[in-house]
Design brief:
Helix content: 10-25%
Shape: globular
Order of helices and strands: EEHEEE
Number of strands: 5
Largest sheet: 3 strands, antiparallel
Structural class: alpha+beta
Radius of gyration: 11 Å
Length: 68
Amino acid sequence: WHFDRIVDQSTVGPNPSSVIRFISRSECKIRCLQERNFPCASASYDGHLNECKLYTVDRHSNRLALAF
C-alpha cells in the first residue's frame, strides 16, 4: 500500500463507509489496511477532532474530491 498525505484539504463527495473517533493518524492508516467489512480505498484524518473516515473510493475516482 502507498499513502499520500495531503494537508489542509477535506474530502468532498460520498459519505464515509466508517467513522472512527478518538484515534491517531497512524491508527487511522492501520484501520484502513485492516478493514474487512468493505474494501477501504482511502482514509481521511482530522487531527483537531481525532477522527478517521474510511472510504470505498479514492481521490482518483470521479466521486471523491479534495477541497480547501
